[in-house]
Amino acid sequence: MIEIYTDGSCCKDRGGWAAIIIDEDNKEHEISGWEKPSNNRMELLAVLKSLEWLKEPSNVHIYSDSKHVINGITKSIGYWKKHNWTTISKKPVADVDLWIQLDQIRKRHKVIWHWIKGHRGHGLNHRADILAKKAAAN
User: What is the tally of structural domains in the chain?
Assistant: First the structure.
């Protein structure tokens, strides 16, 4: 089993994303990057880039403090796809490019999604938050 802790951050005109990946040998790997800002986009990128980082299909537990990501991928995505990537209020889904990519890559893996409350002392979530902020600031 692989555990992934993700977070996103926005700082001025840049956004940062980061993840801590704990592989099956209990070795930790840190990945991060930046892009134009949007907090939800950074949260999505953190999860997407983490799953892309995995070389083989895996059993994965993803921990995110983003209800937008967790609810989007576990509850809303079926509706969005059925309704041509529009929301229940008939508006286009934001960051549809990332949702489509995430929907595809998650099929390679067996993923269990976990929402954790951010900024509440969870060590690996806190580290991912620090990495995301550094990526946004650099």
Answer: 1
**What does the alpha-carbon distance between residue 19 and residue 4 come to, in Å, rounded to a whole number?**
7
In this predicted model, which residue has the larger pLDDT, 37 or 114? 114
Q: What percent of the chain has pLDDT over 70?
A: 99
Report the CATH number at residue 129.
3.30.420.10
**Alpha carbon distance 28, 106 (integer Å):** 21
Of 138, 137, 130, which is closest to residue 19 (Cα–Cα)?
Answer: 130
R_g of the chain computed on alpha carbons: 14
**Residue numbers of the domain that contains 128:** 2-137
Task: Name the residue with tokens 């800002």.
Answer: 37
* 39 pLDDT above the threshold of 90: no
Distance CA(127)–CA(130), nearest Å, equals 5
* Residues taking part in catalysis: 7-8, 43, 65, 119, 129
Q: CA distances (Å), 55 to each of 16, 19, 48, 76, 109, in order?
A: 23, 16, 13, 27, 11
